[in-house]
Amino acid sequence: MVNKSELLEHFQKNPEKYWKFDFLKEKGFVRKTCSTCGRGFWTLDTERKHCPDPGCGEIYGFIGNPVGKKLSYIEMWKTFESFFKKHGHTSISRYPVIARWRPDLYFTIASIVDFQRFDNGVMTFDYPANPLIVPQVCLRFNDIANVGVTGRHHTSFVMPGQHAFNWPKEGYWKEECIQLNYEFLTKELKIPPEELVYVEELWTMPDFSAFGPYLETYVRGLELVNSGFMEFAWHNGIVELPVKVVDVGWGLERLTWLVNGTPTGYDVIFSDAIKRFKRRTGIEYDKEVFLKYAQLSGKLDIEEVRNLNTVRREIAKKIGIEEKKLLEKIEPIQAMYAILDHTRTLTFAIADGALPSNTGAGYFLRLVFRRASEFLKKFNFSLELSEIAIWHINELKSIFPELKEREREIVEILEVEKKKYEASKERSRKIIAKYKGRPLKVEDLVRLYDSQGITPEELGIETPEEFYQMIQKLHPVSLKKKEEKEFVDVSGLPETKVLFYDPIYEFKAKVIKVFPGSWVVLDQTAFYPTKGGQAHDTGKINELNVLDVRSVGKVILHKVDGELKEGEEVYCKIDKKRREILTKHHDAVHIVNGVVKKLIGSWCNQAGSDVRVDSARLDVTHYSAFTEEQTEKIEDAANEIVQKALPIKKLVLPRIEAEKKYGFTIYQGGYVPSKQIRIVEIPGVDVEACGGTHGDNTRDVGWIVITRVKKISDSVVRIELKAGEAAETWLKERERILKEVAEELGTNEDSVVEAVEKLFERWKKLRKEIKKRKK
Ligand SMILES: [Zn+2]
Ligand SMILES: [Zn+2]
């Protein structure tokens, strides 16, 4: 396999081939090579020796000395939007920050992620318009320690994406892209052309399935935009991709920072929030010192700088101030910036349905919540993160109105998280007392945070530089799932024709393959395999029992208790009764899922489900177990939907259309979308991408009884339920208990109850009584 530096070296030997931009030449730009890093760059300044990267010696020359047209953060987006719309781009709304459509990522880390899809492991692009722009909010947690310090690091930022797909059939390519770049910067933002420097770079997918030349645009040491051209792939050598993609990621924060020349980027993007923060906390802000500090702190990239203290000492010396004094002045300000950044991240994530927790995506949300909370405490800022979130919502609502719509939820989750944080502090008090004052290694600190939620600050230790990097290593943000190895190799076999979405319970088929262990592949089948949380069908193939049914890719395998021959014609019969119960349970799971989202909160998403014959299980994301009242309300609302006799609609749509029409919450419980997806919709109740078997009307589900609700992890609640006959049988069993309890309690006992409805009502009463008795 090739590696990035080899490729870059190869590219750099042929710059005329890979970074050929006639437009820049026409404008008088010359290509030079950086004396420090060796990369090629394009400039109008014939004297320039090194590229404009701060790592190669450049300083942030715009701080205190802005360039271009002065615009606010919001105005910058509006200007960008109108320019690109004028030049044929469609402006679309942002995608969620939680990448529900991607099996490999928790968060949307770049605008191009919106449009990347994988079909059988091959990356493809789905896009609603071409070319397009999008104000994509991105979350990244790999530089947490830098946030607040460098002026340019964020855990959330807006990447205005500029994308053109499917070149050469549609879209546009390098020349037009750089021309748009140049014109936006020089004509719209009024940046003099001699300020622009274009640096040659290489971008690649980690597996080299796509890569290509990039051109970074710098102004006075600040990288404003990356113009990427996905042009090649690696298949035992460089091959051209048949369809090429322009992937330009602008930095809204950076553009605004440049034209305002403030000490940090945070000053312009949180301008209103900072005013409020200062007013509320009386935080002191020595503008003079901070300006000088900021100009020099472009180097303060903790990733690259081995010793933060050394750099700080150097800066203090240059400013002519004692290091301790410098820290006193800058630390509270840096804490404020970090608090504002982290709160904005939480605001977007919660608005998009995420919850802070101990695992997965939620892990990083809890991490920034706690970091922000520790800062509030350390500097005695008497503010709540929930009120800061409201400042952000109001400041951003003209671009992101959806935040305002979710204000209630955002505040609720932040308040709940604060309670959890305080409770965990209370719990960890003893542990802190035990460890306080002891010499602790970074590894110990990481372990204490990971297992107990105790931050180094709580132990009175300044957070070591590598702390967040080590945490990050323990919790990779990508690769949600590992590809599982399949139990048989079905390559070369045709797709099995699927009959189970039609009411077919008896059918003829041909055996096309028999694998060891009596796993039989038919040319067509009505046997539903275990998938999407629904258990498989059983029945007969000829005289043999079908014990298990599984799918591998698009091939369905049946395990039978006997022998069949390849080529044989067989007669198949499904256990209809079993299928009907499974179908009712699956319908019930969708109904309850929809009800929970409505009654409890928009953050309640399916974390998993298990649809079996005797019962079904639905796991939803929520911060605490449901109360008895909530459970009862959910159960009542679910049964109301059954009574309303709503249609259960099923339709197959191209993925991009389904996403456009229903949004990304259709991806529940880790569903991985393929090109065509099947949508199951109960109008007004629930819409999900789902491959399971479903009835046609909610009326057919019968009764839904919630038999148990249990918190199974910090952010997941498990609902166990029964529907239809399974519910009736279960209720009848309870009748016996009911009688016993009634006797013991001395309450009147009715005559034999037969109606399921009555049974159900009594079960609810009984449930309460049992609970009371337990107490
Ligand atoms: Zn350089
Ligand atoms: Zn489903």
Please characterize this protein's 3D structure.
With 775 residues, this protein is an alpha+beta fold. Helix content is 38%, strand content 22%. The chain has 22 helices and 26 strands. Strands 1-2-8-9-10-11-7-6-3 form a 9-stranded mixed sheet. A 6-stranded antiparallel beta barrel has the order 13-14-18-17-16-19. Residues 34, 36-37, 39, 50-51, 53, 56 line the site of one zinc ion.
- Helical stretch count? 22
Ligands, ions, cofactors? zinc ion
Poorly predicted spans = none
Strand composition percent: 15-25%
List how many beta strands DSSP finds. Answer: 26
Mean pLDDT: 90
Largest sheet: 9 strands, mixed
Overall geometric form: globular
What would the keywords be for this entry?
binds zinc ion, 22 helices, alpha+beta, 775 residues, nine-stranded mixed β-sheet
